[in-house]
Each structure stands twice: as C-alpha cells, then as structure tokens.
Amino acid sequence: MDKPTIELKLPVIPDMELIATHTAELVGNHMGLTEEQSAEISMALIEACINAFEHSLSNNNVFIHFIIDDESLIIKVIDQGIGFDKSKVAIPKIENKLAGERKRGWGLELIKALVDSVEFESNEDGTTVTMIKKKNI
Amino acid sequence: MNDFKIVTKQVNDVIVIATEGYLNNIGGEQISTVCYEKMSEGINKFLLNMGGTKVVNSIGVSILIEIIEKLQQVDGKLGYCNLAPIVNKTFNIMGITKYSTVFEDEEEGVKSL
Description:
heterodimer; A: alpha+beta; Heat Shock Protein 90; 5-stranded antiparallel beta sheet; 5 strands; about 30% strand; globular; B: alpha/beta; Transcription Regulator spoIIAA
C-alpha cells in the first residue's frame, strides 16, 4: 500500500516557503513529532525551498511531498530548475564568510545539520532534495 | 505575506531592536539599515530582541554576518536575546555565536554589552 502523502505545489513567489512550513507543522503534529523536531524540519524545508526557488525559472512551480512513514517523515522538494553540482558547493565557514564578499551559501549545511539524512539528485532538468527526519531520536 | 517589523529604542549606549516576524532578506536589510545609520552616529552596540521572531532563513542571517563584520571594524558588539530554540540552533550551526553573543533577556543584554 502506498504511504500517506501530502503534496504541495508552490509558485515561485517570495515567502511561499512559509506555506510549506505550516504544512510541515501540521504533519509533524499528526505524527506526534516533538516541537523541536518540527521546528528543525521547518528550518530545513525553508532552506530547501529557497534553493529550489533560486534554481527555478519564475514560471515554474516547486513541488513538495510529505511522505508519512511509520518511523520517519520523508520530505521531497522538487524543482524543475537548472540543477546544481553539489561537489562544487563549498562548505561554509564563518571565518571565511566574515572575511569574504559573499556571506550567503549556508542552505545545504543547515539542511544537513537539521535532518537525519539528505540526498540530492540534480541534472539539467531539475533537482530533487530528499530529507528524512526520524520520529524517535 | 511576511510582515516583518522592527521597533528601535536606545537604552544607555545600546540600541535595542525588537523584531517581529520572519527574518528573511527584507527583514535583515531593515535591521542593517538601522545599525548602519546608528553606526554613522558613533553608536556601536546593538541588541536584537528576537522574541517576536520564530522563523529565520539563512539569507536573513547572512545579513547579520555583514553587520558583525562592520562592527568588528569599529570595535562594536552585536547581541541577541529571547531567541526561539530553533533560531538559537541556526545561529550556532552558522557559527555567528562565536562573534556575537546570545543573552537570556533584554536586561542582561543591555547590561553585558
């Protein structure tokens, strides 16, 4: 049987990521996740959405799937953008950011720190970020 | 959709900026505008009371890094108080708490900065 799944379609409009976080909170409540777990999911989701919006063309949509598993919540953030090469994304360090011109570039690092596992599949047709948050730590 | 607001006051030699709403790029720029304006007047201590901000994004926080960089050049200080746990965690992951300080509340922040 298919796992229960909630699907969202977000237009590339500023702050649409907040709609995703509201849904994440509701799903988290339904699954009995702690407030801390839900907040971590929301923060990771915000970063994944921002990346998806930046990679996407303005007339595309970003799709989010919340898949409810027995032991975990699986979230897929899917864009139809230009893709990116993860190996070319530098690991951010605060010391370098303070000294350098570019202060941004923290999204992937935050996502990795806030969920239990994350996978990126990317090509010229788009990117899918799959994040897993386990129910019990 | 996001209605970020700030309220600014001065307590002794500290500018206290109370934030409300989602700290994104627009919110970050509102904060930096106030900080740079006050720095041009010679005030270099800032306390962000973030009790009204439950969500941030890394772009908004990156603007705080820019403020920290500018404050370092004039021996200034940036602090935060009333942080939501996830905001505190985000600041720690990004490392900004090495170069700015988290306080429990406004009173402690103003006294210690």
